[in-house]
């Protein structure tokens, strides 16, 4: 086939990965990287599949580099360095709405449909779609595939998706969707490789990063998750509040006189670990701090994970395994240990040395719950879907 580029576009960053896709089998990783600080002083770094640096470049603010000019530069670098043609681009698109769950070829009608979902994911969706449009302008003949972060949760029981609002609003699409689905789909795939048909049994996966959520899976199928109508719901996150009494939002409107725009900014950008600590949204900085406010933020983060794990265990009717993944889940053994200690009532026992070393299984042999550490790979999952769809389109 050729090369597939996977893109995950944010407001000030662009994550990417390049894969080689053959006629059959899974795509092979070639390189990955990130452009950070877009709009300020962009910084590009590209690494090979083994993690070694391939190239690095910095721009100054005077260069006036935009998302589109940087993407054009990236496409040019890829096309001059690979031996085969770039055959497709796969995108992480955060919201697919109630109808879009399978990866789909992007066309004008799909773009218009996804534009209508921007109010449900204002931090992510507009930037995801801007990258799609930029590629379409720069390389109009290049196929683009949208992979939806809500898609993995599409088959949840209806009761898990309902909000207790008037039915007319539910009909309009006001319901629980769930997010981080591409990550959870990859975790389910890895569990299937590790456990075969059991696929981890009744599993709760914890995607813990700047955005954080839990997903309850029964034999690899999503049953329940902590994020709901938007990616504000559920766990405490880096700058997002997580689960919040709606009355608190009414209070901000009625008593504090805040506008919808001010409330949106507060809930998405000024809350979470940053809001509680007043120090940082970065778990590494909080763990390194002696300030008691940092400790309070970490305590709340851990408490919410344990509290909502209990709720998801009830949705599953029990628990067989627990998976840590994403930035904090993969790299913060202290957080893993503290979560595990709060889950002791479920029968979780952690091997301290295995946890410190970050081994694939960090529970003891006597633990009733198998606790795993599985690095997520959303880009690989996007590459798999993109390659599969392109192969289907070229079948005689």
Spatial order of the strands in the main sheet? 5-4-3-2-1-6-8-7
Low-pLDDT residue intervals, each spanning 5 or more residues? none
Helix content: 25-40%
Cα-atom radius of gyration: 21 Å
Query: How big a fraction of the residues is strand?
Result: 15-25%
- How many β-strand stretches? 13
What is the mean predicted local confidence, pLDDT? 92
End-to-end Cα distance:
15 Å
Instruction: Specify the CATH class of the largest domain.
Output: Alpha Beta
For the biggest sheet, the summary is: 8 strands, mixed
Q: Return the domain count.
A: 2
Topology:
Blueprint: E1 2-9, E2 14-21, E3 28-36, E4 43-48, E5 53-58, H1 67-81, E6 86-93, E7 104-105, H2 108-115, H3 125-138, E8 144-148, H4 158-161, H5 167-171, H6 181-195, E9 202-208, E10 212-218, E11 221-225, H7 246-254, H8 260-269, H9 272-277, H10 283-288, H11 292-316, E12 321-325, H12 326-331, H13 333-342, H14 352-357, E13 370-373, H15 378-394
Parallel strand pairs: 1-6, 6-8, 9-12, 12-13
Antiparallel strand pairs: 1-2, 2-3, 3-4, 4-5, 7-8, 9-10, 10-11
Helix pairs in contact: 1-3, 6-15, 11-13
Quick rundown:
The protein has 396 residues and is of the alpha/beta class.
